[in-house]
């Protein structure tokens, strides 16, 4: 069975720590910001799995994948405030909105 690679990020004061776990191995690195920590995760994964071409990485912030995505996009886009909510999903009791005519 294929096992995904886990990259977990934790804020440590003004720095970030990233821990990558894959195939029974664990490596850790620190970085001054989340974007750099994400880059360091890629480097750690390459060091650990240089010959492995099939890679699925799950990035989490203190164990939360959605939290990581919101924090990373906020940092990457240079937004002042993090995304506070995720848009609501379509409700089953409402009819879906049809696509624009150009996409139909």
Offer a quick outline of the entry.
The protein is of the alpha+beta class and 104 residues long.
Explain what this protein looks like in three dimensions:
This protein is an alpha+beta fold. Helices cover 27% and strands 27% of the residues. It is built from 2 helices and 4 strands. A hairpin with a 2-residue loop joins β1 and β2. It starts with a strand and ends in a 27-residue tail after the last helix.
What's the average pLDDT? 83
Stretches with pLDDT under 50, minimum 5 residues: none
Largest sheet: 4 strands, mixed
Give the SSE string.
EEEHEH
Beta percentage is 25-35%
Helix content: 25-40%
Itemize the secondary structure elements and their pairings:
Blueprint: E1 5-12, E2 15-22, E3 25-31, H1 34-48, E4 57-61, H2 65-77
Parallel strand pairs: 1-4
Antiparallel strand pairs: 1-2, 2-3
Describe this protein with a few key phrases.
alpha+beta, globular, four-stranded mixed beta sheet
